[in-house]
């Protein structure tokens, strides 16, 4: 059986606790994600998908429960440890690409590698390989403004995978694209998961895309349920 890359156990999260506006978005959410697996996360807007992804990716903390990444229990981990695990083991893709406009497509993929101590030449080679995988080898020198929306999002996917993470977390990665471009970007995601063996948890409103993943989980009343 494949390695468990991400384990969430009993996650709870409440905003504005003890006030009239208290919102309990997670009420004991559990999840097991294995290497090579692509899982859809489906829920209405405001149900807590983004909160769950941020906690899973160590960008936020839960009020209760455990997050284990690659077998490491992150309960009680200090910020330095959380940052190191997040940088090395987790890649993020958002609805909006958030590429740095003053840098080329290749440079946007090289920068996170340099921040992790990868030598420049090695980082550039890795970036070029990823751009080739997603069909953008000829666009490496273009800045984001010269790329289409789908091309920008493919670069964002490459950037997320630059440091060879175990886990890809994607929050509505095709939500800002037209249906045809959405399909293209999702095809790239599936291809990269298949070729790298990482695992992916993808939040989406697109039920057709969700149906193409290995599993569908629904976040309902703060709990994850098989879709």
Automatic annotation (TrEMBL):
Gene Ontology MF terms in the entry: ATP binding; ATP hydrolysis activity; transmembrane transporter activity
UniProt cross-references to Gene3D superfamilies, sorted A to Z: P-loop containing nucleotide triphosphate hydrolases
Family: Belongs to the ABC transporter superfamily.
Keywords: ATP-binding, Hydrolase, Lipoprotein, Nucleotide-binding, Transport
Domain ABC transporter, first and last residues per copy: 6-227
Protein name: Lipoprotein-releasing system ATP-binding protein LolD
Pfam families xref list: ABC_tran
Entry keyword Oxidoreductase: no
């Amino acid at each position: 059986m494949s390695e468990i890359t991400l384990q969430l156990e009993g996650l709870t999260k409440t905003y504005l606790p003890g006030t009239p506006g208290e919102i309990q978005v997670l009420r004991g959410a559990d999840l097991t994600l294995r290497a090579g697996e692509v899982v859809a996360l489906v829920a209405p807007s405001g149900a807590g998908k983004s909160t769950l992804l941020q906690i899973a990716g160590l960008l936020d903390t839960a009020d209760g429960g455990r997050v284990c990444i690659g077998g490491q229990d992150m309960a009680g981990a200090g910020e330095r440890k959380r940052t190191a695990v997040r940088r090395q083991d987790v890649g993020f893709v958002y609805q909006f690409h958030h590429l740095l406009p003053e840098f080329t497509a290749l440079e946007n993929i090289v920068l996170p590698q340099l921040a992790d101590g990868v030598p420049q030449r090695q980082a550039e080679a890795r970036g070029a390989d990823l751009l080739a995988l997603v069909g953008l080898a000829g666009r490496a020198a273009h800045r984001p403004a010269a790329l289409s929306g789908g091309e920008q999002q493919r670069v964002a996917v490459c950037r997320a995978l630059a440091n060879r993470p175990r886990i890809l977390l994607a929050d509505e990665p095709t939500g800002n694209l037209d249906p045809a471009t959405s399909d293209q970007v999702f095809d790239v995601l599936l291809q990269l998961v298949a070729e790298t063996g990482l695992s992916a948890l993808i939040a989406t409103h697109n039920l057709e895309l969700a149906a193409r993943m290995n599993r569908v989980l629904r976040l309902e009343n703060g709990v994850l349920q098989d879709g």
